[in-house]
Each structure stands twice: as C-alpha cells, then as structure tokens.
Amino acid sequence: MNIRKYMMGGLLATVVVAGTTSCASDFLDEELNTSFNTQYFDTPEGLEALTVSLYGNIRWHFGYEWAYGITLYGTDEFTNANDLTAEPWNTYDNRFNPTNCTTATGAANNNCPPISALWDQLYYGIASCNTIIAKADIISDAKVRNRCLAHAYFLRGYNYYRLTAQYGRPVLQTTPAEGVVRTFEQATEEEAWEQVISDLREAYNLFEGEVFTYGKGITWTKATAAHFLAKALLFRASERCNAFNGSTKQSDLQEAIQMCTYAINARTLEPNYSNLYANWTGIDCAAEESNEILMAAGFNNSGVTVGRFGNRTYNYFTPQFGAGFGAGWTPRGIWIGGMDFQRCRPTEYTYAAYDHVNDARLWKTFKTVFGATAIPDAAVAAEKGVAIGDPGIVMILNTKDDHTYDSYTFGAYVQSPTFTDDAGRLPEWSREGRQTPEAGALTAKKGQWVPSSLVLYQNGQYVAPTFTSTPICNFFAGINKTEDGTRQGEKGDSFRDVIMARLGETYLLRAECYVRLGDMASAKADIDVIRARAQWKNGENRSYYVDGSKAFEGNALNTGSAAENYINSNLNMNTYYLSNPNQPVTTEASNLTSWTWDNLPAEDEAIISKLGVSGQTERAIEFILNERTRELIGEWQRWETLSRTNRLISRAKAFNPEAAPNIAERHNYRPIPQSFIDGLLNEDGSNLSEAQQKAWQNPGY
Q1: What does the alpha-carbon distance between residue 461 and residue 457 come to, in Å, rounded to a whole number?
Q2: 557, 559, 565, 569: CA torsion to nearest 10
Q3: pLDDT in the model for residue 36
Q4: Pairing of the two strands 461-462 and 344-346
Q5: pTM (predicted TM-score)
C-alpha cells in the first residue's frame, strides 16, 4: 500500500480553496477548486485555505454505511434488522476480519463498510494537518498562524483519537510524507495516546476561546478541544489502558475534569432536549446554532456537501414502515422524513434503560406513530373505519411489568382477527384535532382499529422481535435525530448538520472522572444536571411528538398531494399513554433526580443485576453508561465508549442476541486492514515476512 496515496494523493481533490469566512453557510458554499498543486501550500493563502478544508474531512464519517457500522453496531444499544448490509460489524462472524467483506466473501451486498475505510480516510486529514503544522511559520500574522495551527493540531488529535480508539496501534505520521513511503513503524497504544493528548493540548492552548470563526455550531473552539482532550485523557485512564496507565491515571482524570469544567463554563445546555434534535426546522436553523454544540459536521444544499459527500444518516434508524407488517398504509415518500432502510434496530436494553413515565427523552427521541397516507385495502378500511390521516402504524413501548396487552393480538392487519371489546381491541386514538405542544388530544380511548401495531411486552416477555416479515425483525421504533424534511427527493441528501460532540456529554464525562476519583457527590451533581433537563417540564403535553420532518412545512415540494401526505403522515403524537396505560393524564413536571448511589433507579438496578456487577464504583460506571444511552443514543460513539471501559463484551453478550454468540476479547480492537499490511516493505525493499505481518496485526485476527 502506498500510504502517500492516502496522505497526500487525495489532498488536492478535497481541499476547499478559499479564504476564511464568517458564517457556516458561506464556509459550506465555497467553490471546489482542484487546479492548484502542492506549491500553493507554500503560501499563507494556501495554508489558510487548507485549514478551512479540514472541516470537510469530518463530513466523510456520515456519508455512507460506515456511519453506523463502525460506531453503533455490535453494542448493547443497536442490532441489525432485516437489512444485512453491515451485518458482520454486528455479528462479529468470520466475515469480520482484516480483509474487506464483499459479496464474494459473504456480504449481503457491496455496501458493507470496509475494514480499511476509517483507517484510509483519517490519514487524508492527518496529511493536511501535517502540512499546515510544518509550514505554519510562513504565515506572518500571529493570530492567523495560531488559528491555523489550532485547527491542524485539533483535527490531527481527533483523527488519531479515532484511529487509536478503533485500531489501538496506528502509524504515527506527524510530518509531511516525502515521496512514496512504504516503510513505517507501528506505534504502541501507549505512544498513540500520548500523541493524541499532546495534539489536543496544543489545540486547546492555541484556540482563542469561543471565537466562532467559521459559523456557530460548525467552528471548532477552545471548548471543542477541551471536550476531546478530556475524552482522550479519560480513555487513557480507563480499563482498556490498564496495562500502562498506572502512573498517569490520577493526573489524567484531574486534568480531564479541568477540561470539562472549561467547556461547561464556556457553553450552556439547551433547556429542553427537543431543541437539539426534534425541533430541527431546516438549514442553519436555531437547533444548528445551539451553544451546546461543540462539534458538528456541516451540511447544507451547497455542492460540496451533497452527492458523494452528502449526509446519508437519515436512512439508518427507520423501520420498514412502507412494506411488511400491513404494507401500504404508510408508503414511503419524502414527506415522512426518512427511508425505511431498517439498519439500526434498538435492543430490549435500549428501551428498558429509560424511565418510561418520567424521562421525556424517550418520547422526544423515538417515533412511535406513523399516519396513514394510503388505503391499500378499501374493504378492510371500510369495515374497520380507517381513514387517511388516522394512525397507520402504532408502536406501544410498554414495560416488562405491564400486563395490559397480554391477550391482545398485534401485527399486520392481515394477521389480526376481528376485534371485540372483550378480546384484544386496540385503544382508540382521539380524532379531536392535531396536537401542538399546548393543545390537542392528551390520551387515547378504546375503539379505533390500527392497521399495524406493535407492543414490546406481553406476559412479561419481550415479544417485539416477533413482529417480522422475515426471520429478522424489521418493525421497531426508530430514533429521530437524523430526520430531515428539507430533502428534495426520497433518496436525496440530508441537509442537516450532524452533531459530533455537545455539552450534554461533557457533563457525563466529568461525572465519570469524579466517580473514578471517588468523589461521588460531585458525580451525582453533574449527572443530575442532565437528568433534570430530561424531566417533563410543567405544562408539557406528554403525548406530543415532533421531529425533523417538521422542516417539510417549509419545503418547496410541500404542495398539492405532497402537502396532504405530510399532514396525514406526521400526526405530532406519540404513544405515551398507550405505553403507560395506568398513568393519569397530566401536564405536571416529573422528577429524575431522587436517587442515590446505593439505590439507583429501578431500570438501572435491573440492568446492573443482569450484568452481575457489584461494588459502588463498578455500579456507578454502569449507571453512567446507561445514562449515556438515554442522553446520547445514536450519536455515533457507543462502540468506542464500551471498548474504552472494557464493557463491550459483557454488554453485547447480555443485550445483543445477534452479537452474543461470536463476540470475543479480540473485538475490543478492530483488525488492522490487511490491504495496508500487504503494501508494507522492509527498509531494504523486501516484502514483510509472515511473522512480521502477524506482528502488525492485532491479536486474535
């Protein structure tokens, strides 16, 4: 493998040639220009342009199936549904190995994320950073020079963070490659973390503070560097690094707390969780300008952020709503906000981690109702009284101890008997008008038939996986953090930014550091900041739901029948009262902060009991991992978090039935790409021996 091809060969094809700009939209709208050679980077203008281009490197993470395969699959939170595109990343079977899985080697299709993808792409960004760092002295303006260096050190630190978290032992290339290089030294994991921490410290020291050079919500600032420096320090202080972190653990945790404190003091949390994701209304909307966002991959409708470089994440969390389980009542279409790619199916653990009555995050994150936009069977519709605009798909997220639905029949309408009041009639949805945060139906009544319906538990058993049209479940409640109603076609690019770091996580990072240092009171205080926000606020309608599909209200395509489809499919309601059938209708505030370390919330005690964990510190870390699920579900980092804490295997075995049979100790690290190893040479130009190649590879592969 010619690593120069990855470090320099692709550089000119991705650089955005422009000066610094003042807002996110201008930055993203810069014209792509590939007419310059590397001599351009010997000028101050060239280095500034190269600095701006660094933001493009992070967009890669969200342009394809690797977005979820590398970060979410094979964990406790998500498993694969009916679509098997990235299945090996979740099942850890023999297809998950140092070579890239293709249809020839057993992949379901050729879109399976390659093992080499992350490795190869991150070195593109590292090459750009190395060029900026090496040549920064040609910039005479100290303020501009430091700004360029801060960005370069930050992205190099971030990219090496991802490489080390995933692969353990990357190549540390910190100077521009000269010529074709095929001889490298492999860093130890200890050396790699030292480099990551060093780079992020440099970035933290060089950033000017909370100066939004390229647009709020997009620009990296001192708080961004502080957050990721804290993450790197905590990683080195965590269980995966126990072989070498004895002398640095305490100081790393203390420094991480200082970094988190800077970010927390410099930024502010959104007062309502919905502001971050559910209330996304369009390009550069208030949600994208939130002061809570520390790092985001910027997208809009400009040419440089669509097509091959576009945001495809809206595809990955929706169930197969357009087919199966009573197909045709809610057919696919742009007005729904997503496509039914059914990639990421939540596990039983994911639903069970929430307090279903008091934690608003569950109901502000999971989409549980799709409206009917078509009548595929007129006879059934007439018999059952189903009209367009009625609920077409309903997902009841009840709990294990609920027996309301033990005798009910659920599933596709073709499988359901004629309901009577005494035998399994589904509760009715009120037709008294659309909901708003302040008005509309608050609860449900008996009587109305729903074409497609699901329940999590019957007779104390988790039955959700049985709602399927194939051997693997394709009917589930998906999360709304990527929904985009501004898209211009059903298969069009998403124009919303992807949040990569925010202050909600910073509080949980600091809490974990406090736990590891034995300061349980401070840890609880930080956790309770997050849990207090997650509570229902006084006056909130608990059955109201909204997501990024709301942006379709302002979409130019929202005319004629499309406008009707939007109104009929997005009913602005959830299944809160169906899922909590004994809960009285209320708009009172809830409480999530009445817990102690010895008496954790019931849902956490159940999870910890299943894991067989004891001891205050161990229980506390498991509790924080659960809280991270509730706060950060689907935010592209779960695999690395579980690997860091050495909980990947225990949690996958306990909560992911598809991963459990095959996951093993070696899976705490990804395999080093064989394509890279095969291209290496010795200093004398000879090929590596079999023993040398084996030494490059992570154990067990």
Answers
A1: 5
A2: 70
A3: 54
A4: unpaired
A5: 0.94
